């Protein structure tokens, strides 16, 4: 969440885990969006002069600019999020949406306490003031995590949620609205979730003029358009832009994995990729193999056989996706060195091997299970691709600590996250290289 691309996750592709984790937290498990109808609930966020639909918060969300800043992890905020969590976990409707349940688990008191631990010595900090969020239009639950992070940092928020009628947004905002109407009424100025047509740049300009920090999630064009709206002189922008990610695999390790471990790996890789149609910035687009010879061939076969077995009953390939993959293959043949199609039983996974890694690899993308592959004995050929556009390296059979140490030693301009396979979508308060609590708050010094 990516940063997060403007992409829709399939509601039929849900994690198989019994216990919700923070996996897939930012992107959520979306549904195909429909145009927003008139809200059935009271339009608490409409104003006479702005075309807003309000999900929760003040009748006029512009008044949120007057809310005092709070200290990070303020007890009022953690109590509110804890009660929202409990309400969502009790709601039978939420069980149909793994992304809602995952957010509820993220907001549990035990998790919030753990999140606060690294900031325990952060006295003298306050939120920046008003945070204005632009959430991606096709990722239902991104708005909730962005809001939670800003609240935990001590800010009031106005969040532009998706203008599509996602049920996840309604369920989550209803839980928030009920809490704000009861024991947590004092937080109403801090929790404003609205939506308006994306072409209404004038509304974006209104809240941009009022805010102290603006948080933009989306593709490069979305960020460019939002940044045309000026900010106050001391306000800051946080942009979670379009990024590129890869999976690093040790061939000898994969070749030696037992069947249960392979099945677990396949589930994790599926959740990293197919669950959201391979659209999130965190999703691997390149599988980089360390190894050669028969060991490499055996590892590749075991890996892809396991992925195919797990994904096949869960991910129907739509005709348009099949066509897109074929076009992507032709495009790779024209633009990437030595690109050739590797064998698979069908087009559930399209594998394209490369003879060399060049910068155009960063521009290659195709949703729905299309992967570049490259093999080498060392990581040296990978280094030129670790530009500012590269976000996440997930690792299988390779120590994440070793990759982390290599990145620091080589001083690459890119890569903000190193994680194990199956965890690329896990949300944390450090995202895209931003420490969200530190960036969304300010320090008051005493001398």
What is the CATH topology descriptor of the largest domain? Aldehyde Dehydrogenase, Chain A, domain 1
Order of helices and strands: EHHHEEHEHEHEHEEHHEHHEEEEHEEEHE
Low-confidence stretches: 2-46
Number of strands: 17
Descriptive keywords:
single chain; 447 residues; Aldehyde Dehydrogenase, Chain A, domain 1; 2 domains; six-stranded mixed sheet
How would you portray this structure in words?
- The protein is an alpha/beta fold and about 450 residues long.
- It has two domains: about 55-240, Aldehyde Dehydrogenase, Chain A, domain 1 (3-Layer(aba) Sandwich); about 245-425, 3-Layer(aba) Sandwich (Aldehyde Dehydrogenase, Chain A, domain 2), CATH 3.40.309.
- About 35% of the residues lie in helices and about 15% in strands.
- It is built from 13 helices and 17 strands.
- The chain has helices at about 75-90, 100-105, 110-115, 140-155, 165-180, 200-210, 220-225, 250-255, 260-270, 295-310, 320-335, 400-410, 435-440, and strands spanning about 55, 125, 130-135, 155-160, 190-195, 215, 235-240, 245-250, 285-290, 340, 350-355, 370-375, 390-395, 415-420, 430, 435, 440-445.
- A seven-stranded mixed beta sheet has the order 10-11-12-9-8-13-14. A six-stranded mixed beta sheet has the order 1-5-4-3-6-7, with helices on both faces.
- α5 (about 165-180) links the parallel β4 (about 155-160) and β5 (about 190-195).
- α1 packs across α5 (about 165-180).
- It is globular and about 65 Å long.
- The two termini are about 40 Å apart.
- The model is unreliable at about 1-45 (pLDDT under 50).
């Amino acid at each position: 969440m990516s940063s997060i691309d403007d992409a829709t996750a399939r509601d039929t592709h849900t994690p198989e885990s019994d216990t919700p984790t923070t996996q897939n937290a930012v992107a959520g498990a979306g549904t195909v969006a429909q145009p927003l109808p008139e809200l059935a609930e009271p339009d608490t966020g409409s104003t006479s002069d702005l075309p807003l639909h309000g999900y929760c918060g003040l009748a006029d969300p512009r008044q949120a600019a007057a809310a005092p800043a709070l200290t990070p992890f303020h007890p009022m905020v953690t109590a509110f999020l804890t009660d929202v969590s409990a309400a969502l976990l009790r709601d039978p409707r939420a069980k149909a949406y793994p992304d809602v349940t995952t957010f509820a688990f993220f907001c549990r008191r035990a998790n919030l306490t753990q999140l606060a631990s690294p900031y325990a010595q952060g006295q003298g900090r306050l939120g920046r003031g008003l945070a204005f969020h632009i959430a991606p239009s096709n990722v239902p639950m991104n708005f909730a995590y962005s809001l939670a992070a800003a609240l935990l940092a001590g800010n009031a928020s106005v969040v532009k949620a998706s203008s599509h009628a996602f049920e996840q947004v309604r369920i989550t905002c209803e839980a928030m609205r009920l809490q704000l109407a009861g024991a947590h009424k004092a937080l109403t100025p801090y929790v404003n979730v609205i939506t308006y047509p994306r072409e209404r740049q004038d509304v974006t300009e209104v809240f941009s003029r009022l805010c102290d920090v603006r948080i933009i999630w989306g593709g490069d064009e979305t960020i460019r358009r939002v940044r045309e709206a000026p900010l106050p002189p001391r306000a800051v922008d946080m942009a979670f832009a379009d990024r590129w990610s890869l999976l690093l695999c040790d061939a000898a390790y994969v070749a030696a994995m037992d069947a249960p471990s392979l099945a677990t790996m396949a589930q994790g890789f599926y959740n990293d990729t197919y669950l959201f149609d391979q659209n999130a910035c965190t999703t691997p687009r390149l599988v980089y193999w360390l190894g050669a010879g028969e060991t490499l061939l055996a590892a590749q076969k075991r890996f892809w056989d396991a992925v195919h077995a797990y994904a096949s009953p869960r991910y129907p390939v739509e005709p348009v996706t099949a066509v897109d993959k074929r076009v992507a293959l032709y495009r790779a043949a024209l633009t990437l060195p030595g690109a050739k199609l590797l064998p698979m039983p069908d087009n559930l996974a399209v594998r394209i091997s490369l003879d060399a890694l060049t910068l155009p690899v960063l521009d290659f993308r195709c949703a729905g299970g299309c992967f570049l592959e490259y093999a080498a004995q060392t990581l040296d050929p990978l280094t030129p691709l670790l530009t500012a556009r590269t976000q996440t390296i997930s690792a299988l059979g390779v120590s994440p600590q070793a990759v982390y140490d290599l990145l620091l030693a080589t001083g690459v301009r890119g890569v903000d996250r190193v994680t194990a396979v199956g965890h690329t979508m896990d949300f944390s308060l450090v995202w895209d290289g931003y420490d969200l609590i530190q960036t969304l708050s300010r320090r008051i010094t005493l001398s």
